[in-house]
Design brief:
Elements (H helix, E strand, L loop, with lengths): L2 H10 L3 H11 L1 H9 L21 H18 L7 E5 L5 H7 L7 E6 L2 H9 L1 H4 L3 E5 L26 E6 L8 H14 E14 L4 H6 L7 E2 L3 E3 L9 E4 H10 L3 E6 L17 E6 L2
Parallel strand pairs: 1-2, 1-4, 2-3, 4-5, 5-8
Antiparallel strand pairs: 5-10, 6-7, 7-8, 9-10
Helix pairs in contact: 4-5
Length: 286
């Protein structure tokens, strides 16, 4: 077992509260330095409070959100007057960028299973932008939330056909297969006819399954039926799905697969015409 694998297994073995505490303590010196040097931003939480992605200073964090916005514009033709749903809105990484892009005719709704993130967004973006709304949903996730409510039974808190664009970034990489399938059905329900969804995944097929099961530092060694897990003790830690299985799941929800764009998580050079770590998947409601 490599050092990164050992550390990842140790990290996943902690409770969500323990992980939050250790992260905050670890980044405390950096957060103090950011405050002293004036590297903070009204809508960006401190590094220790960023529980998704790689904690970064405010400048880089905003750049990450701007990259998300560019992807939404390129792959699902996001327009300023769109009604948008962000599944797994986190601490507002994407929402910050969208707040300067959506106009008053447009709207943004986001929900997340981590209350700290939702509270942060509501105190900042939600307060300053009336067309931005964030909701906390207490769902069980063995990485983030110990609630007993199941994501596989959760109905999105929105009316049918409420949105013409839906997106999620690094969400389905941390959910179980039955939960993902259920979310696809919910996406179909809340999308308007012709609406598009942008999501990211870890995907594989026969050509790279052996590689992603054994590659150094970031691998999925545990084979299941149509998917692979990074850690069997924390099944929401990271999941990779076979491309054929994903296509069938999308079809089962009466959605249409539009495109798959490979990311560079398998070890390819980022400069090889790829600017997203995870694989991008776009699907639509007919």
């Amino acid at each position: 077992m490599t050092k990164p694998q050992f550390l990842r297994d140790f990290w996943y073995g902690l409770s969500s509260n323990q992980r939050f505490f250790i992260r905050k303590l670890y980044y405390l010196p950096s957060d103090l330095r950011d405050r002293i040097l004036g590297r903070t931003h009204k809508y960006v939480p401190s590094r220790g409070d960023i529980y998704t992605g790689s904690p970064a200073n405010a400048k880089y964090y905003i750049k990450q959100g701007e990259l998300h916005l560019q992807h939404l514009k390129i792959y699902i033709d996001l327009q300023p007057n769109d009604s948008v749903l962000d599944i797994g809105s986190g601490v507002g990484r994407s929402a910050i960028a969208l707040s300067s892009y959506l106009n008053q005719e447009g709207s943004y709704d986001g929900f997340d299973v981590v209350k700290q993130g939702v509270d942060w967004c509501n105190k900042g973006l939600g307060k300053d932008f009336p067309n931005f709304n964030f909701k906390y949903v207490p769902l069980f996730n063995d990485l983030y939330n110990t609630s007993t409510l199941k994501a596989s039974e959760f109905q999105f808190p929105y009316e049918d056909a409420s949105f013409n664009k839906v997106f999620s970034v690094s969400l389905f990489t941390h959910m179980q297969i039955d939960e993902i399938q259920h979310y696809f059905h919910q996406i179909y329900r809340v999308l308007k006819s012709g609406g598009l969804c942008f999501s990211t995944f870890f995907l594989y097929d026969e050509t790279d399954e052996a590689h992603i099961s054994a590659q150094k530092d970031f691998n999925f060694p545990h084979k299941k039926e149509g998917y692979r897990l990074m850690n069997t003790n924390v099944t929401s830690g990271n999941i990779a799905i076979h491309k054929t299985k994903l296509a069938n799941m999308i079809s089962n929800a009466n959605l249409e697969l539009v495109t798959i764009v490979d990311g560079f998580w398998r070890g390819q050079n980022e400069a090889e015409d790829r600017n997203e770590y995870q694989d991008i998947v776009v699907f639509k409601k007919p």
